[in-house]
Design goal:
Elements (H helix, E strand, L loop, with lengths): L5 H24 L6 H25 L9 H9 L1 H7 L1 E3 L2 E3 L1 H18 L3 H26 L3 E9 L4 H11 L3 E9 L12 E9 L6 H9 L4 E6 L1
Antiparallel strand pairs: 1-2, 3-5, 3-6, 4-5
Helix pairs in contact: 1-2, 1-5, 1-6, 2-3, 2-5, 4-5, 5-6
Length: 229
């Protein structure tokens, strides 16, 4: 393994910034928690650690059985703390999984650039940007005509979400996403149950009329208000 020149080192660090920034820009454009700066820094740091690993290997080669490459290997597991911070749970809804996966891939891109695997790093960056951008637009196009938002104000008690899901399933509707918010006023029903607002993102491929959906949900005990948009 030849020693890394100053010019080569600068090239790798700059390229890591460019590739990490390209992925980060896409994330920031969609207003995700880990944007341009986060992804750029992760990629740059990973690249630096890989360069350092190679430099250490050259210094100890033939003198010890130690493996300096383990330093770079820790990036893969160490990036987990950033990914865990990007994943959020709100009620039954989990967000940030794509952002966490993106950070993990960006770390891999940085390691690839640091190791001099430019083709792999460039191809991976292109595929990530294509996946995050094109597939998101495809998803929006597919569900454009069959997508509705359902807001339900109801009591919070065991089995309530299941009852609502069953009613929607009977209409041929599929729940795509659920967000639950507690009523800040602190209101309770006669049994002492709190009130909550459910926001449901639903596939409506059967083109069921809004009034039919609202009527089916209102029949569920404990439901106070329903809005379909």
């Amino acid at each position: 393994m030849a020693e890394i020149s100053i010019g080569e080192m600068i090239l790798r660090l700059v390229l890591a910034c460019v590739l990490g920034g390209a992925i980060g820009y896409e994330r920031q454009a969609r207003r995700k928690s880990a944007g341009l700066r986060t992804n750029l820094l992760v990629c740059l740091g990973s690249c630096l650690i890989m360069i350092l690993s190679q430099e250490l290997y050259l210094e100890v080669e033939g003198h010890t059985n130690a493996d300096p490459a383990r330093l770079a290997a820790q990036v893969v597991s160490g990036i987990g703390f950033l990914g865990a911070g990007a994943i959020m749970k709100e009620g039954v809804n989990v967000t940030g999984l794509t952002t966490a996966a993106c950070l993990w891939v960006v770390a891999g891109v940085g390691l690839a650039v640091g190791a001099g695997a430019y083709i792999g790093a460039l191809l991976t960056t292109a595929l990530v940007v294509l996946t995050l951008g094109a597939l998101s637009r495809l998803d929006e196009w597919v569900v454009h005509e069959s997508h509705i938002d359902l807001h339900i104000y109801t009591v919070d008690r065991p089995g309530q979400l299941l009852a609502i899901s069953t009613a929607l399933d009977d209409l041929g509707l599929k729940v795509r996403d659920v967000k639950i918010h507690e009523d800040e006023s602190g209101r309770r029903d006669d049994d002492g149950n709190k009130y909550i607002t459910m926001e449901l993102d639903i596939y409506n491929k059967m083109v069921v009329k809004s009034i039919v959906i609202a009527d089916a949900i209102r029949k569920i005990e404990g439901v106070r208000r329903v809005a379909v948009s």
